[in-house]
Write a structure and sequence with these properties.
Blueprint lengths: L1 H22 L58 E12 L5 E14 L4 E14 L5 E17 L2 E11 L9 E12 L8 E13 L9 E12 L8 E14 L8 E13 L3 E10 L6 E12 L1
């Protein structure tokens, strides 16, 4: 496993750092079929109750030379979609950790009913491979409700409510309730190329049987930057490199006020018009940490 880690980490980082320059000159082809030709209505808080609810779902188009609004790995997506999404991650832990590694996979079906509301249903499976104790594995799942607050060509904000059911197979007996506010802003007008900034704030609460001192409430947060190098109509469409800075802080429990921070460099691109790939690796910024790296792979199909 150590040889695999030493081999893969420089390869992943090299791909992320060089992909933008190597493919920036890709020629344009036909328009991306995932982008609707029907212009979407600007949605704001001032017209929250009057616009969007009775309008059919339309994907928001960015400015011609602006930064596209992207789905990333860690940041909560700030716009409505109709997609299936598969996430895979592999957490490679340090030798001092009793857990050797944790592979994880999930599957989402996200469906926007109109311009304001989206429902997500998801299931997941986790394998916990331990160094001395018995290995664990089990399935979880849940649902997410997303409400679009603001949606314009240069800014987007939404509110999310999410329920994660416990995965008893890995000895998790807590139901997680999350509320999140997420946003995006196009920074291209600051002469920063096709650069976008993303941010979110998540409040998480846990309900169910647990040992004394277990965290019952925490806060999670993310600030991300993404630069897009190709047009959506290119063979490698909207090729983007990004870095996500994510963290969480315990509000209560025996480890109250303890925070964990990571940086996730990554890249994403569209191919075949309706297919999106995202690759990245989590690098811990706070120490001590049991995790060496977390490798992430996401495939999204737009329908």
């Amino acid at each position: 496993m150590n040889n695999w880690h030493r081999t893969m980490r420089p390869i992943v980082l090299a791909l992320i750092l060089t992909a933008g320059r190597s493919l920036a000159g890709t020629p344009e082809l036909n328009p991306n079929p995932t982008t609707s030709a029907t212009p979407a209505t600007d949605l704001t808080l001032s017209n929250f109750f009057t616009e969007g609810w009775n309008q059919p779902y339309t994907f928001r188009q960015s400015l011609p030379d602006g930064a596209p609004d992207l789905a990333l790995l860690r940041s909560v997506t700030n716009f409505l979609v109709r997609v299936s999404r598969t996430d895979f991650s592999y957490a490679d832990n340090l030798g001092k950790s009793p857990t050797k590694d944790i592979p994880f996979v999930d599957e989402y079906i996200d469906y926007a009913f109109n311009q304001r509301f989206m429902l997500s249903l998801f299931g997941d499976y986790t394998w916990v491979n331990q160094r001395s104790a018995a290995d664990l594995d089990g399935a979880g799942g849940g649902a997410q409700f997303r409400f679009q607050l603001v949606d314009t060509p240069t800014a987007s904000y939404d509110f999310n409510f999410r329920i994660d059911l416990p995965d008893t197979g890995i000895d998790d007996h807590l139901t997680k309730f999350s509320t999140a506010l997420s946003g995006w802003q196009d920074l291209s007008q600051l002469h920063a190329g096709r650069l976008g900034i993303y941010y979110d704030l998540i409040e998480e609460s846990y309900a169910g049987p647990a040992a004394p001192g277990v965290v019952r409430n925490d806060m999670a947060y993310d600030v991300s930057f993404a630069e897009t190098w190709t047009k959506p109509s290119a063979p490698i469409g909207n090729l983007s490199t990004f870095v996500e800075f994510a963290g969480s802080t315990n509000v209560d429990g025996d480890r109250r006020n303890i925070s964990a921070l990571t940086a996730t460099p990554g890249l994403q691109f569209v191919f075949g018009g309706r297919n999106l790939l995202i690759l990245g690796v989590d690098l811990p910024l706070t120490h001590p940490s049991d995790t060496r790296d977390v490798y992430r792979f996401t495939y999204i199909y737009c329908f």
